[in-house]
């Protein structure tokens, strides 16, 4: 049974967290939970999840186009070459979250991303090796379960490995949010209309393999 708070103005049942904000609804319906193998999108999401720390995702989502403009559309090679002038430019940009530590982490992570691509061929090949098997997945069927779920064994493994490789602002909770958003898991609740769509997308998706 679907609770009233999960039904948005167009009468479609959705996950509780997207509320009734049009931008959030569009993100939920068209992006969240669908598998991604594009390196630029994966890198962008890692960076934005880092900027979200201590804030809501909706705050970041509303600034996403500003972030894209400020960070050269998250072109990994360009961001990896940023210097102190770029840091100063970003700290003066009112359209993004102006946090020096998070800006520095983004530049660092671009450099680490290049190292990962050199080793695995693509970022996607690296990240998708952490996709949990069905037996490793928590049983996410309803809102109550999803509200309590902040991290998993798979997200802990991913965060631990990335920390070892020198990535910043990417702990197990951030890693799990990343995995949910990029489709490594399907955490649309079973009463959400997008659950089956995401599941079908995942079934037809071929996870990239390391070189």
TrEMBL record:
Gene3D superfamilies: Hypothetical protein, domain 2. Pfam families: Adenine_glyco (PF03352). InterPro entries: Adenine_glyco (IPR005019), DNA-3mA_glycosylase (IPR052891), DNA_glycosylase (IPR011257). It comes from the Bacteria. This is DNA-3-methyladenine glycosylase I. It comes from Maritalea mediterranea. The lineage of its organism: Bacteria, Pseudomonadati, Pseudomonadota, Alphaproteobacteria, Hyphomicrobiales.
